Amino acid sequence: MTKKPNILFILTDQLRYDFLGCYGARFLKTPTIDSLAEQGTRFETCISASPICVPARASMLTGLDAHVSGVVHNLQWLRPDRKEMGVKSWPEHLNDAGYRTSAIGKMHFYPWDASEGFQDRIIAEDKRHIHIKDDYHDALVDSGRAKQHASTLEGYHENKGACFSDLPDDLQVDRWVGKQSANYVRNHTFDQPLALMVGFPGPHCPYDPPKEAIRSINPDQLPEAIPETAESKTHQADFLAAYKREWAALDYEGFNASHVKTIRQYYAAAVERIDADVAAILSAFEEQGELDNTIVIFTSDHGDYLGDFDKVGKATFHEPSIRVPMIVTDFRKTAGDVSNELTSLIDIYPSILRWAGANPDPNARGVALGEATEGRTIVGTTSQGSMVRNARWKLVSYTNGTTALFDLGADPTEQTNLINEEPKVATQLFNYLTSSLVDSIAAGHSDLLVNEVKETPPHPFFNRDWKRQYPSKMGPPKYGK
After folding, report:
1. Is the CB of residue 384 less than 8 Å from the CB of residue 315?
2. Interior CA angle at 202 toward 99 and 153, to 5°?
3. pLDDT tens-digit profile of 394-438?
4. Which of 294, 125, 310 is nearest to 199 (CA)?
5. CA–CA distance, 388 with 369 (Å, rounded to integer)
6. Integer Cα distance of 459 and 469 in angstroms
7. Do residues 281 and 180 touch, judged by C-beta distance below 8 A?
8. Quick check: 155 and 205 in contact, CB under 8 A?
9. Does a cis peptide bond (omega within 30 degrees of 0) precede residue 458?
10. Residue 171 — pLDDT band, cuts 50, 70, 90?
11. Contact 61, 447 (CB under 8 A)
């Protein structure tokens, strides 16, 4: 019998694709992640269709689009009766396939200590959630420290969120997650194959590396920000209001090129440190003699503007927000490759099931990574609006009334809105978006189905006092991928 591969799923938080060496960045060094790309497959265009932390993570966990699961905002989570509907998380599938499933770091589940199918959890939640008493909190308390709001750190307000963490190296949150993950691997017996998900809280803001880390980044080599546009300005008021709230307590009025350069320098330094943390985890697999039987997937839940369009963070559907790295390295058959197939974070779900030898899930809406996707169109939704994107075109429609069409082939930085100049393309994409969303509404409310109406007599449905089953099972999607 062929030995099942270990699966190492590394998920960074808010890492844009073009801040890695293997995606063309020459202003920082990411040798470990670059090596994964050289030995595996680097997917050139991977999309986070719902570029907000919780919606993106719910989609990866369940294989359902945000507009099917209903998780379109950071204050929402999966329905508690999802199992009764037939919605299984990928770790639940892998548990059935004989794996030990473990999650270390940030997962962003609600409740934050829910298992969602993982058999083991070591938790270090979002850097902004300073009141959560997770395992990282316990480690800080044991050392005589506590979580603190980044507003107390050096440079936070002056640099618009870029600041220095004063914690010891081993208690920096990403380093702590990396070490916990490496130690977990070293202590695993591998009498079962391991499916380990590692969630780094960084390089998400606050952009808070230790002071010495920024010395390796020359700020003069950093790329300049994409200019704002008439379309992007329609989102500016919401962006400014969001960051003034308590979670960030930042005023981005007066955001300028100097702030952008500083933020990018600190962010790049945090990325370099995560690269070293990934190296430590891979070394632990190698020490155990298991690396050559391990499939590694490296990605992020969404990107970060880092000053593009005069913003930081994510949430709208511009490329710096939705483009993420996607690297898959199967150490059983290393061969460097670059894929130009249009891929999505939702593709992780069917891929993991395939690698593990688990049965396909009929509800999954993604395409296993590596499969041909010629002509693919991706639909995304958040509480702010919807997007439809193919290899060339992107159409966006927001709740604030903004609608835009971009020719990404000719205009990759989305400077020119062609919604009025290309009515035929806009209509085609609007029609696709409508079909997909209508289908998703039906799938998202499949719990309401009363399938017994279609039965033929004799059947209890036709008798008095028949009891309706609730919730009904979810059915497979009708429209595309």
Report:
1. yes
2. 145
3. 999 999 999 999 999 999 999 999 999 999 999 999 999 999 999
4. 125
5. 20
6. 14
7. no
8. no
9. yes
10. very high
11. no
Q: Which two tokens stand for residue 458?
A: 């004799």
Segment 31-65, tens digit of pLDDT = 999 999 999 999 999 999 999 999 999 999 999 99
Computed over every residue of the chain, the mean pLDDT equals 96
Phi-psi region of 15 (alpha: psi -120 to 50; beta: other; left: phi over 0): beta
- DSSP assignment of 246-284: TTT----TT--HHHHHHHHHHHHHHHHHHHHHHHHHHHH
User: Which residues does 384 contact at the CB level (< 8 Å), separation at least 6?
Assistant: 235, 238, 315, 316, 398, 399, 400
Q: Report the distance separating Cα 381 and Cα 71, nearest Å.
A: 9
CA gap 375, 387 in Å, rounded: 16
**Helical spans, DSSP H, in 292-448:** 319-322, 348-356, 423-444
> Shortest CA distance to 285 belongs to which of 169, 173, 198?
198
Ranges of beta strands (E only) in 285-415 are: 294-300, 323-324, 326-330, 337-344, 378-382, 385-389, 393-398, 403-407
- Single-letter amino acid, residue 200: F
Query: Whose structure tokens read 């009766």?
Result: 81
DSSP, collapsed to helix, strand or coil, labels residue 364 as coil
CA-to-CA separations, 237 to 68, 151, 320, in angstroms, rounded: 29, 22, 19
2 pLDDT band (50/70/90 cuts)?
A: low
317: its two tokens: 């559907």
Q: What is the DSSP string of 86-112?
A: T---HHHHHHHTT-EEEEEE----SST
CB distance 213 to 269 below 8 Å: yes
Backbone phi and psi for residue 329, each to the nearest 5 degrees, phi listed first: -125, 115
CA–CA separation, 148 vs 265, rounded Å? Answer: 22
Helices 257-287 and 173-187, axial angle in degrees (round to 10):
10
The span from the CA of 305 to the CA of 314, in Å, is 6
Centroid of chain to Cα 235: 22
